[in-house]
From TrEMBL:
Domain Obg: 60-214
Gene3D superfamilies assigned to the protein according to its UniProt record, in alphabetical order: GTP1/OBG domain (2.70.210.12), P-loop containing nucleotide triphosphate hydrolases (3.40.50.300)
Annotated spans, Disordered: 32-53
Protein name: Mitochondrial ribosome-associated GTPase 2
Residue intervals of the OBG-type G domain: 215-380
Biological-process GO terms, alphabetical: mitochondrial large ribosomal subunit assembly; regulation of mitochondrial translation; regulation of respiratory system process
Source superkingdom: Eukaryota
Subcellular location: Mitochondrion inner membrane
Upper taxonomic lineage: Eukaryota, Metazoa, Chordata, Craniata, Vertebrata
Biological role stated in the UniProt entry: Plays a role in the regulation of the mitochondrial ribosome assembly and of translational activity. Displays GTPase activity. Involved in the ribosome maturation process.
Length: 389
């Protein structure tokens, strides 16, 4: 326990020797020291900084476009030094060159389905500086950035790469060249050079990545036409479905296995609305996912009044987005045939669009075999012909 006479906050004087008085300060310590100690304590107790909210959210959602800053690695510096050895007074220059900086390479990976894992900035590995005894510095390793298959790489408005096949690579940013050591400048006119050069900075670019879904067939329709339910019925894909109206917010790709071991990729494109080419609703954000599809499936809600107008509106939106897109090979699929009012409208729909309209029910599985046979026929006719060429 501290004695009461020592709890005085002010200074007091005590004898400091013969004829001298010394002023001393008792407890507590000075405010400066107290604030410093509290600051150190607060520094140790500071919680770790959180990640950016946008980065955390993007990793959980489907992302089909991204702006990326890529920087190549810096080259290592050259070294200026001279050989030193006993009994060898004039050893000459032996400074090695620096290593080259590493490149940043975009690689199409089948396992990556979205651009959400792609960060907003990538820095290549730097090269090491040179050393004595003509030792060159180690070059920076290549930095590979996996992106989904079907990624377009743009610089400004110019398309610089199309990574449409698994394993395709594109050097997004080149590393800088390594500097030269003084050994490089050795010549008959200059037997003892002291000159060395620093490494060059890497290339720095701003790229825009845009994903276009790679699939053989694309299902196009208005919201709540039953596209997701149909994809669940013919493939192992599991997009969200429910008994109440809502629309899919991201494309889903399912693989349809045929009897002759063929695999057909079918994409469920989010529902379009009238005026989508003017960027209404989801707009052109998902219209571009249809551009790579070889043939289309127009999904029509047969329970709606005048269902044939849905096909006309869908073709109009596709043609406004890209000329010739609506003229690709297609099949009209009338869904929800299990409903009584839908079955009554089927004859009038076939009278307007032709007898090749496939009427089925994704909920009960009625007439799904007819659709699978037609998919296999279209795949063999259009995709198989390209493989033979």
């Amino acid at each position: 326990m501290v004695p009461s006479r020592l709890l005085s906050l002010g200074p007091r004087t005590v004898p400091g020797g013969v004829g001298r008085w010394t002023q001393v300060r008792r407890w507590p310590p000075s405010p400066r020291l107290l604030s410093d100690s509290c600051g150190d304590h607060a520094k140790h107790q500071e919680p770790p900084r959180k990640k950016l909210l946008s980065e955390k959210k993007l990793k959980r959602h489907f992302v089909d476009h991204r702006r990326v800053l890529v920087c190549g690695g810096r080259g290592g510096d050259g070294v200026s030094c001279f050989h030193s050895e006993p009994r060898k007074e004039f050893g000459g220059p032996d400074g090695g060159d620096g290593g080259n900086g590493g490149h940043v390479v975009l690689r199409a990976d089948r396992q990556v389905k979205s651009l959400s894992p792609v960060l907003s900035r990538y820095q290549g590995f730097h090269g090491e500086s040179g050393g004595r005894k003509n030792c060159f510095g180690r070059s920076g390793a290549l930095l590979y950035v996996p992106v989904p298959v079907g990624t377009l790489v743009k610089e400004g408005k110019e398309v610089v790469a199309d990574l449409s096949c698994p394993g395709d690579e594109y050097v997004a940013a080149r590393g800088g060249a390594g500097g030269k050591g003084n050994r490089f400048f050795l010549a008959n006119e200059n037997r003892a050079p002291v000159t060395c050069t620093p490494g060059q900075p890497g290339q720095e670019r701003i790229l825009f990545l845009e994903l276009k879904t790679m699939a053989h067939a694309g299902m196009v329709g208005f919201p709540n036409a039953g596209k997701s339910s149909l994809l669940r019925a013919i493939s192992n894909a599991r997009p969200a479905v429910a008994s109440y109206p809502f629309t899919t917010l991201k494309p889903h790709v399912g693989i349809v296995h045929c009897e002759d071991h063929q695999q057909i990729a079918v994409a469920d494109i989010p529902g379009l609305i009238r005026g989508a080419h003017q960027n209404r609703g989801l707009g052109s954000t998902f219209l571009r996912h249809i551009e790579r599809c070889r043939f289309l499936l127009f999904i029509v809600d047969l329970s709606e009044p005048e269902p044939w107008t849905q096909v006309e509106d869908l073709k109009f939106e596709l043609e406004k987005h890209e000329v010739g897109l609506s003229e690709r090979p297609h099949v009209v699929v009338a869904n929800k045939i299990d409903l009584p009012q839908a079955r009554a409208a089927l004859p009038q729909l076939r009278a307007r669009l032709g007898p090749n309209v496939i009427a089925l029910s994704a909920a009960t599985g009625e007439n799904l075999e007819v659709l699978l046979l037609r998919l296999q026929e279209l795949h063999s006719r259009h995709v198989g012909a390209e493989l033979r060429w």
